[in-house]
Each structure stands twice: as C-alpha cells, then as structure tokens.
Amino acid sequence: MDVKEYAIIIFCDKEKRILLQDRAGISKYGEEWGFFGGRMEGSETPEAGIIRETKEELDYGLVSFKFFTRVEAPSASGRGMSVNYAFLAEFPGFGSFRQLEGTEMQFFSVAEAKKLRMTPISYLVLNALEEYFEKG
User: Which numeric CATH code is attached to 3-135?
Assistant: First the structure.
C-alpha cells in the first residue's frame, strides 16, 4: 500500500484560533483551506520536514514547536494512505511571515474551520485540536 507522509504546523493564538492557508489556485484535491506544511522528502523526519516546509511556505525559521498528534486516513486521491504529523507553535505575528504559497492566511476557531472545505484527513486533526483545546 502506498503511504504518503506529511508534516503540518498549526500556529495558534491566545484565543485558541488556528492559522490556515487559503489554497485557492494550488489545491490538489479540491480543498479551499489547509494547514501549512507538506509531504516529507526522502528519509526526512517529521521535525525536519516541518522546519523545511515552514521555511518554503512562510519564509519563517521555525524553532519553537512541539509534536501534537499523528493521524492517518485513506489518501484524498483514494490510492493509499496519508499520514499527518501535526505540530503546534505559538503564533509569532504576521510580521514574521512572508507567505510564499497560497493566496492568503486567516485565523479560524476550530468550529469555523470544520465548516471549511478541507481534505478529509484535516478534519481528523481538527477533531484532535478540539479535544486538546477543551482539556487545556
């Protein structure tokens, strides 16, 4: 079975909102919004992958972050499995970012994000975030 691994970063603000990327024009599977991050390359670890992806997509040198969850689901293409390694980081401020991928970025509550068009595996991450925010 074909397994594709992805590393994603979830920037959170003090109101427990999450920063998402507008994927209009770059969507591969019909999603309109998504997390920042992408497919891991070669033998890259999830940590190395998210540092690289954050630099590529936001021109930001990610230093302070923590592992949040690992979720897996059938791939959006329907040909195998997708595994997402999700990391959390405090939002450093828009002035820290230079968005190089996607058309914009915006904060959403988890409830708002669940109403957006995202990839199926993204909703699993949102469910885990909802539980995490309710506990802490």
Answer: 3.90.79.10
Find all residues with CB under 8 Å of 128, minimum gap 6, and list them. Answer: 68, 69, 71, 86
Per-residue tens of pLDDT for the chain, all 136 residues = 799 999 999 999 999 999 999 998 888 777 899 999 999 999 999 999 999 999 999 999 999 999 999 999 988 777 899 999 999 999 999 999 999 998 899 999 999 999 999 988 999 999 999 999 999 7
DSSP for the chain reads --EEEEEEEEEE-TTS-EEEEE-TTT-SSS-SEE-EEEE--TT--HHHHHHHHHHHHH-----S-EEEEEEEEE-TTSSSEEEEEEEEEE---GGG----SSS-EEEE-HHHHTTS---HHHHHHHHHHHHHHHH-
